[in-house]
Each structure stands twice: as structure tokens, then as C-alpha cells.
Hints:
By secondary structure, the chain is of the alpha+beta class. It has one domain (2-225): 3-Layer(aba) Sandwich (Glutaredoxin), CATH 3.40.30.10. The protein is built from twelve helices and four strands. It has helices at 2-8, 15-25, 43-57, 68-74, 81-84, 86-102, 118-127, 133-145, 154-163, 168-175, 178-193, 216-225; strands spanning 31-36, 60-65, 201-204, 209-211. Strands 2-1-3-4 form a four-stranded mixed sheet, with helices on both faces. Residues 5-10 and 23-27 have low confidence and may be disordered.
Amino acid sequence: MRRKARERRTTGMDAGATQQRNAHNRSMAPVLDFWFDFASTYSYPAMMRIGPLARASGIGVRYRPFLLGPLFKTQGWDTSPFNLYAAKGRNMWRDIERLCGDLALPFRKPEPFPQNSLLAARIAVVGLRADWGEEFCRAVFCAEFAEGRPIDNATVIGDILAALDVAAAPVLEAARSDETKAALRQQTEEAQRLGIYGAPSFTTADGELFWGNDRLERALAWARDGR
């Protein structure tokens, strides 16, 4: 029965509206939009931290997966700037190792980098219409950055879904639908309109933009207090 219930909840219509409604329903809490790409290194610690911090602050979170690739292309980049600029890349990898150590998060550098995050992002759009999307997002980041598994691999994604007691076949079908493809494309276009240029990013109801895992606490405070 539980699996059938999960299957029935895999294909809701509007991921963003559903999340926003659920967030507001929690005592009409302020809402912070969390923009992330599964290929983004610093989105990993942000994803693992945001839930407990938001709950402690009385903030609802709307999870907004998007793709950095189209944003990078507008800047003339065909890959991550951490690949284009060797010194920057070396420092980032050491920094993320230190950061994960501080947070007691396991870390393993994914190969290749960046991973192709399209499949995972589409499935996240599907899952965030249901009740397993947030768990899925955390599990994908763990598979990629803690275990070094390829997140563009359907078997890896299937393993993650199975661990969440979600049937893979209907989810993969929904992820391939024109509706889901359009939803992810529209979300990426919205990120561009908001001036987002990297991940993780956070936006507030009054239009403030915060970039980077290290700005998470400040973004939550602004969402709560408006300053």
C-alpha cells in the first residue's frame, strides 16, 4: 500500500506552487527560495544544512533545482569556472574538503567534474511535487559527493529511489515528459531573470539575492526579519 501511495504522488502539476503552498501552510512562515544545481560542489553542504537551520529559524524553504550550464554559456563558459581557472579549482577542492570536515560530512571528489545533472534535476522536479523530493535531493548529493557515484546513471538514480521506497519506472516516465522538461527549463530561465549566476543561491520574498553556502545563515535571517 505504501508503494502505491508513493506512485500516486509522483506526478503533481506545479512543483513550485505546491512547495510554496506547503511552506506557507506551516504557520504562514516566511519562505526562502533555495536554488541549486546537483553538479555544484557548494550546493552539497548547503543542501545538508538548510533544513535544520530553516526549521530553527521558523523559515519555510522552497527547493528550486536548476541548471547552471545555460547560465555559464551566457558568460562564454563551456564548463565550470573551477575547471577553466586551475588555481581557483585547486583552492575550491581543498576548501570543500575542509568545509565537509568541519561539518562531519563525508566527501569524495566526483569524476568527471562537473557531473551531468540533467536527469537528477528532472526527477527532483517530479519528486518535489510529491512528498519525497527533499529526501531525494539530499540523497543525490550524498551519492555524488560522499560516494563518488555518477548521478547521470539511471541505475544510480534507481537505487536512490528504491531506498526512498519510490517506484522508479513511473518517476522516470514522468521525468521524460514534456511537462517536466518545460518546468525545469522555466525554472532555469527564472533563475537567469532573478540575476542568479551561481549555486547555491537564495532569494527572498522581497527580492534579495544571496550567493554561496557561506551566505545561507544571512539569507535565512533576511527572510525572517526583512533586513
